[in-house]
Design a protein that fits this description.
The structure is a homodimer. Chain A is α/β, with parallel strands linked by helices. Chain A is built from 11 helices and 12 strands. In chain A, strands 2-1-3-4-5-11 form a 6-stranded parallel β-sheet, sandwiched between helices. A 4-stranded parallel β-sheet of chain A has the order 7-6-8-9, with helices on both faces. The longest helix of chain A has 16 residues.
């Protein structure tokens, strides 16, 4: 006797049975009554440990993130936990750090707990070399794997992505339209998301007939003061630039601090564009124009897709969500 | 046959058996060998679902926080999960929001999962009225309850606290010694921690023979722009102040923005002190003097205490950790 029997007999989805079990208000009174009647009829008692004995599901999802103290990932965890909870699922959290070995260990640990699915939050989980991702593909034969803003092709792997490439391309296009010609790009990572942002930057320059110069592209630690110091160094080396685009707001905060340190006026003499539209974007004077990557929508969509998978629905393996450009005071547009 | 039998026969703690089971390197080779031999001898197979059947423990701790996207709590969750993991414990995360009713629902949910303990992260879980905390005291008869920077008296309740009162008192004393006389205090909450910070502010003024004026104490939303706007309003109402102390860095960032908006010079004309020494403290120009509340030490201590409780050790019900004053550029000291 398990949740599947209830779902089948009541002719509703597993997610609906879950919602009834967990008192989620998102169920009509009629459906709730039918589900409760069927449970009564079948003598069903919810048992969170059932799956451990091979009887059903533990109603628990593993969430892996590289670092929950990163603001973007902290928000992602918050929204994922909230959405999963609304469907009656617990979340086991694993903060993995960034080494492949540790990520694999945590992944195996979650599998040994027999979680119903694993969500990989953030784009840091997909490695450049295909063989390093094989353990994820292998696992997907048994449980759904959900990627939040990461991409990996596979039969039971579902990706929800922000359109980072288009977001950066659009913002760069607006900088160019507002008169900027020498646009620095600072990035923190070569992840799937990082690579797409870089493509967006290159596309914009090419589309507008501007030269692609490698000395205008720099890797930087995801850290305010590292970004400030890198810009001071480039400035002192004589590099001329009239705009700074970044793959993260923390770097853009560093760019504001660089401008303050050198007396450059924002946005007249220097434009700055952040990324993620985090709370950092309003900490500076002037406040940052930034790209809102819709982390809440990404997380909601991820959980909805997962529930669709559990229900055996025909769900898309890849969902892309458009970002928003939030205009504040560090750009002329 | 369970982990307790193994621990007893091998004459090591449960935590040590956990560490061996989870491949934690923090165990001597000799101990590891003994534990593995005993497991073999007793035919012990680790079973994460054992506790659900009344056989042992599910090696899972419930962590409740009001909002994991708050930077302080995000760090706390990161450190708690990491420490618990090092002892072989999973963490089930619940982001509860702030209403008492929701907090109670999540608390009951975690108890129904038969977690081994519940950690309440942050001081928002203890209510002003004693009767509103009775459900926590009732639960502590069955499982240990751990409070991170909150306080509640009870037999099986363990609190790890930052000495917020002394931290604010010390910082206010230094402001006074540096010549400030009209010190505003902005706070966000009347939690246990919030109340102690307020006491520290009042103590400092009294100790130095300065008047306690209620018009210098203001509640504010935990939000950069709310703090800026509140200060602009007080400024425009004619209130004279030469320093702003805050219960959170976000408010101090708002104070820097207020100073920029009004042309007041920091720290010559206005001193500002933040709280939590978060990444916000280095986002502003000038950077914030702030109080480091040692969130990592608090979390490590909480988990160590919990492991002591599981081992039946004589552990303190209350541990207090001193904060550090981090001097940057918004104060004259």
């Amino acid at each position: 006797m398990n949740i599947y029997d209830v779902s089948e007999k009541a002719k509703v989805s597993i997610a609906t049975v879950s919602r009834v079990l967990n008192g989620n208000p998102n169920v009509s009174e009629k459906t709730r009554t039918r589900v409760l009647e069927v449970m009564d009829e079948l003598g069903y008692t919810p048992n969170v440990f059932a799956r451990g004995l091979g009887l059903g599901t533990i109603q628990t999802i593993g969430i892996m993130c590289s670092d929950s103290s990163d603001p973007y990932l902290a928000h992602a965890i918050y929204f994922l936990e909230r959405e999963l909870r609304s469907y009656g699922y617990d979340s086991i959290l694993c903060c993995t750090g960034s080494s492949l070995e540790t990520k694999r260990q945590y992944f195996d640990l979650l599998r040994s707990k027999k979680v119903d699915a694993i969500i990989l939050a953030g784009s840091k989980f997909i490695e450049m070399k295909a063989k390093d991702n094989q353990y994820i593909i292998d696992a997907s034969a048994e449980i759904p794997i959900m990627l939040v803003n990461g991409y990996l092709k596979g039969d039971n792997i579902y990706c929800t992505l922000c359109d980072d490439r288009m977001a950066i391309q659009t913002a760069a296009g607006k900088l160019i339209a507002s008169g900027c010609r020498d646009i620095l790009y600072l990035y923190t990572s070569n992840s799937y998301s990082g690579t797409n942002k870089m493509k967006g930057y290159r596309d914009a320059l090419t589309t507008h007939g501007l030269p692609l110069r490698e000395e205008y592209i720099h890797n930087c630690r995801k850290d305010v003061l590292s970004a400030r110091d890198l810009l001071l160094e480039l400035h002192n080396s004589g590099l001329v630039f009239d705009a700074v685009m970044t793959s993260d707001d923390t770097l853009a905060v560093g760019a504001v601090k660089y401008a303050h340190a050198t007396g450059r006026s924002i946005p007249d003499d220097l434009s700055i564009v952040g990324y993620n539209n985090s709370i950092y974007a309003v900490c500076t004077d002037p406040e940052l124009t930034s790209i809102d990557t819709k982390v809440e929508a990404l997380c909601t969509s991820t959980v909805n897709t997962l529930m669709g998978v559990f229900n055996g629905g025909n769900v898309p393996s890849r969902t892309t969500i458009a970002a928003d450009l939030i205009k504040r005071a560090t750009t002329k547009f």
